[in-house]
Design goal:
Blueprint (H helix, E strand, L loop, with lengths): L1 E5 L5 H10 L3 E5 L3 H8 L10 H11 L2 E4 L2 H5 L4 E4 L15 H11 L6 E5 L7 H12 L5 E5 L9 H6 L4 E4 L3 H11 L8 E4 L1 H32 L3 H9 L20 H14 L5 H23 L8 E5 L14 H9 L6 E5 L4 H8 L4 E2 L3 H5 L4 E4 L4 H4 L3 H7 L5 E4 L7
Parallel strand pairs: 1-2, 1-4, 2-3, 4-5, 5-6, 7-8, 9-10, 9-12, 10-11, 12-13
Helix pairs in contact: 1-3, 5-6, 9-11, 9-12, 11-12, 12-13
Length: 419
């Protein structure tokens, strides 16, 4: 099949490279010329395990191409996927659809043949209706069937998740669109489970799923505080809970809270939608406020360890919002560091295996960036582990502590091991 994807971010790029591996002819479109040139040269513009190899494979096969030209990119496409960002509106919490509608309008001007327009961006319920209306308004002659095709790729595991989806949700009532989507994923083995629902239900499923997972993270973090107070082991408690098939083990790892490009903005957007329709989502509201407080709590724990030191030196391992990605958007680690440096006299030296460049864009010169974990720990009074990278879990902590100043201490906000 001939596929076009508008947007080459954490959704568009792994999806495009994955579809090319399945044998489809894929053109990824992006307005950033520098990014397009890098991708054409086989240089990944974001970190995902296995993505670089997948990109190069697609380029070598000729099935994966990149362009800035929307008209050229969508020419002859049977399906056009829209995978642009829908960031949070900082004033209201709602999803900002500016980039989405700009992309759709540009796309509509280029449509000449019948096509399925699949919205992969996370959008408020009812956006598909607005997309369809915008296409008709821009190009009355366009023959476009707008469907919802939300993504469920986990950052850090996007390549794996593309080839091993636990379900594919498709929002459409069109028999022709359903047939095309079945054909799109037909090369996958084993055949993925496909759930065909209404377009609005599909849009709601994405928000409902992310909000539930965020709520589960918040719950286990609160339970972790409770276990600490009553001297119970949160890992044993989580394991005992997770063995109940009604609950499951996923997302029952306590830590500094959720972050990234999805959970923070999607919970706020869902809350905004609910308020607009006069619905009270008390659990989601509590999750959002509790997650923000979690970062403050972690920062206070770290600062308490050096409260008697006039000019404490704090080492930080991990800046990405989770392991497996270089994404620092809404990273709990970044938020915690920002709390730390507010205290007068505090010096922070940090290291992350993949996210240093993105972290620097957010923190600037307010901290020192170390080339490796040992250098970060050198001369520190306390070490805070804020992202669960495997190399941190495998580190020889007795050797690391010898690099630190006495009395050395490790505050493990991710693995929650005794230190």
């Amino acid at each position: 099949m001939r596929i076009a994807i508008i947007g080459t971010g954490y959704v568009g790029l792994p999806t495009g490279a994955g579809l090319a591996k399945l044998g489809h002819d894929v053109t990824c479109i992006d307005c950033d010329r520098e990014k397009v040139e890098k991708l054409r040269a086989g240089q990944v513009t974001l970190f995902e395990e296995g993505l670089e190899e997948l990109l190069k494979s697609g380029l070598e096969s000729g099935r994966l191409t990149f362009t800035e030209d929307v008209a050229q990119g969508v020419k002859g496409a049977q399906i056009v996927m829209v995978a642009v960002g829908t960031p949070e509106n900082p004033d209201t919490g709602e999803a900002n659809l500016t980039y989405l509608f700009a992309a759709v309008k540009q796309l509509a001007q280029c449509l000449k043949d019948p096509v399925v327009v699949a919205v992969k961006s996370t959008v408020p319920v009812g956006t598909g209706d607005r997309v369809g209306a915008l296409i008709r308004e821009t190009n009355p002659a366009a023959q476009a069937e707008v469907i919802s095709l939300p993504e469920f790729l986990r950052e850090g595991y996007a390549v794996h998740d593309f080839f091993h989806p636990n379900r594919i949700v498709v929002g459409t009532q069109s028999k022709e669109a359903r047939s095309l989507i079945r054909e799109l994923y037909a090369p996958m083995e084993p055949s993925p489970k496909m759930l065909f629902v209404s377009r609005r239900s599909s849009e709601a499923i994405k928000y409902a799923s992310n909000a539930f997972l965020a709520m589960k993270i918040h719950y286990i973090n609160e339970m972790s505080d409770f276990c600490e107070a009553v001297q119970a082991d949160i890992h044993e408690v989580a394991r005992g809970m997770g063995e109940d098939t009604r609950i499951g083990l996923a997302f029952l790892r306590p830590g500094p809270g959720y972050g990234g490009s999805c959970f923070p903005k999607d919970t706020k957007a869902l809350l905004h939608m609910a308020h607009k329709h006069g619905v009270e989502l008390s659990l989601i509201r509590s999750t959002i406020s509790g997650n923000a407080k979690r970062r403050e709590l972690m920062a206070h724990k770290i600062l308490d360890a050096v409260k008697d030191i006039p000019h404490p030196r704090i080492a930080v391992w991990g800046l990405a919002f989770k392991n497996g990605t270089d994404d620092c958007r809404e990273s709990p680690a970044i938020g915690i560091v920002q709390h730390l440096i507010k205290r007068a006299g505090v010096t922070v030296t940090a290291y992350d295996p993949k996210a240093m460049d993105n972290a620097r864009k957010l923190l600037g010169d307010s901290i020192t960036y170390a080339p490796d974990k040992e250098s970060a720990a050198q001369g520190a009074h306390v070490l805070a582990i804020l992202t669960e990278w495997p190399e941190f879990a495998e580190a020889d902590m007795s050797a690391i502590k010898k690099l630190m100043l006495e009395p050395s201490r490790v505050i493990d906000c991710r693995f929650l091991a005794k230190s």
